[in-house]
Amino acid sequence: MELFKLSSQNHRETRKIARILSKEILRSGPWDGAVIVGLVGDLGSGKTVFAQGFAEGLGIKNSVKSPTFVLVKNFKILRSKFKTFSHIDAYRLKNAGESRPLGWSDWVRDSKKIILVEWADRIKKIMPSPRIEIKFEIKPKEKRMLNFFVIKGNGKTNIKNKKRKK
Questions:
Q1: 25 near 162, Cβ under 8 Å?
Q2: Which of 2, 15, 51, 130 has the fewest CB atoms in 10 Å of its CB?
Q3: Which GO terms describe its molecular function (predicted)?
């Protein structure tokens, strides 16, 4: 079930939407495992721009670029229950099995980690639930439509049902 859609007129708005989401995640945590945010969309649809704004909302000052060739870039999160932001670009992965050497199964159980995956559809079989998924659509005149979902189990559910650690 789709939660909501947001239209973005430009990169600045996309970054702002991402900052708001990451700040809300910081306030909500920690969860039972890592917080997973999957980004899905065509090349040039705004996934990396979103990742940059998301990192800004976490207080990360470093320049965030798509880690296409290194696959994963980790950043420390300061003054939070969460300790690490892992930015993953799954574009070069041919299948979900290629993510095993990255330590994926350990990462997704770490409740102090926030993981953002660009090209999440490429490793859909190993993406855990619950997770936030955002689908990017390219619209005319450089606009973007961001479709927000929460995936729980085998289906999609409302974000209010996210499982939190007590």
A1: no
A2: 2
A3: ATP binding; metal ion binding; transferase activity
